[in-house]
């Protein structure tokens, strides 16, 4: 009798577990369809309803430039913010020649101190800003933390993390007064797990992830959608793959942003591209943490050795 009861209990628990996992997989599939397939069919959010202007930082290359161009393609006027006036003018000229929108350029080096932000409020206050894309970032040196120069740590914190805080603080009040707006913080999938030899960079990306979730919880009821975008590898200058053709798992910046835009208003925390979402799901739901830790150590150790070899080869030439 006892054996029969135990078998019944185990069968019930097994059935509940299978039902739970089946529902979980079904929800993931439906979420993927909603996030990536429906926008592909043209059923995406009308981004102009948030406001007539979009602000994009770090917009002269890669993902940032594609955000600026594709938002202009959706009919939004664009504020371009970056540190190179020459490159800003090139992007401005391209956008104005391709799309019937207005542009405004602002030269700022986000690696500086608080003075960088002093006049930004004045320059942006009279604009109907509906979308802010905090994209500016600097790549990490693959190195042990103790071997990083203090100047590099300081600049990386300013560029990768503090810039998003300050830009959001400047733009958010206007969005709240209009009760509509979108803040997109471009993070990275490497901010989702501890990464040896990438400590400061990964920590800044993890900060953006948590910062976005906190803000969304705080302001979603006020009509503000705060999104964290977490790409894996994209063929850009920062990843050293800018001139390589896009693939299913390493898309070009243009391919990546086209899908990422479709997730605005749909997914608060997204990998932005179908294959990156698949990689993230497999990595963090199937592979145990201790296995991932070994993989990351091997991956970044190998990458560092390759970087050192290339640096020595270039120096000798």
From TrEMBL:
PROSITE patterns: ADH_SHORT. Pfam families: adh_short. SUPFAM superfamilies: NAD(P)-binding Rossmann-fold domains (SSF51735). The chain crosses the membrane at residues 6-27. Keywords: Membrane, NADP, Oxidoreductase, Transmembrane, Transmembrane helix. Gene3D superfamilies: NAD(P)-binding Rossmann-like Domain. It is found in: Endoplasmic reticulum. GO terms for cellular component: endoplasmic reticulum. GO terms for molecular function: oxidoreductase activity. Belongs to the short-chain dehydrogenases/reductases (SDR) family. This is Uncharacterized protein. It comes from Nematostella vectensis (Starlet sea anemone). The lineage of its organism: Eukaryota, Metazoa, Cnidaria, Anthozoa, Hexacorallia.
């Amino acid at each position: 009798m006892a054996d029969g009861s135990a078998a019944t209990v185990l069968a019930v628990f097994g059935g509940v577990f299978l039902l739970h996992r089946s529902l979980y997989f079904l929800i993931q599939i439906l979420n993927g369809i909603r996030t990536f397939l429906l926008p592909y069919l043209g059923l995406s959010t009308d981004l102009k309803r948030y406001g007539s202007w979009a602000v994009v930082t770090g917009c002269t290359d890669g993902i940032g430039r594609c955000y600026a161009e594709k938002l202009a393609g959706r009919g939004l006027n664009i504020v371009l913010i970056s540190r190179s006036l020459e490159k800003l003018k090139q992007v401005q000229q391209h956008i104005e020649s391709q799309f019937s929108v207005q542009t405004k350029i602002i030269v700022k080096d986000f690696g500086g101190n608080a003075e960088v932000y002093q006049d930004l409020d004045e320059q942006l206050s009279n604009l109907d800003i509906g979308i802010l894309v905090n994209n500016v970032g600097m790549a990490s040196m693959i190195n042990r933390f103790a071997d990083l120069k203090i100047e590099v740590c300081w600049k990386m914190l300013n560029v990768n993390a503090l810039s998003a805080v300050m830009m959001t603080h400047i733009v958010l009040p206007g969005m709240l007064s209009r009760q509509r707006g979108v803040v997109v913080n471009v993070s990275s999938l490497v901010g989702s797990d501890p990464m040896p030899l990438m400590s400061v960079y990964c920590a800044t990306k993890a900060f953006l992830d948590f910062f976005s979730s906190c803000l969304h919880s705080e302001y979603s009821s006020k009509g503000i959608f705060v999104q964290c975008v977490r790409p894996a590898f994209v063929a850009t200058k920062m990843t050293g793959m800018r001139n390589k053709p896009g693939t299913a798992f390493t898309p070009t910046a243009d391919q990546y942003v086209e899908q990422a835009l479709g997730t605005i208003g749909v997914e608060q925390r997204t990998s932005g591209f179908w294959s990156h979402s698949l990689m993230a799901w497999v990595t963090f739901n199937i592979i145990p943490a201790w296995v991932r830790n070994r993989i990351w150590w091997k991956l970044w150790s190998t990458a560092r050795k390759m970087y050192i070899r290339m640096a020595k080869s270039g120096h000798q030439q």
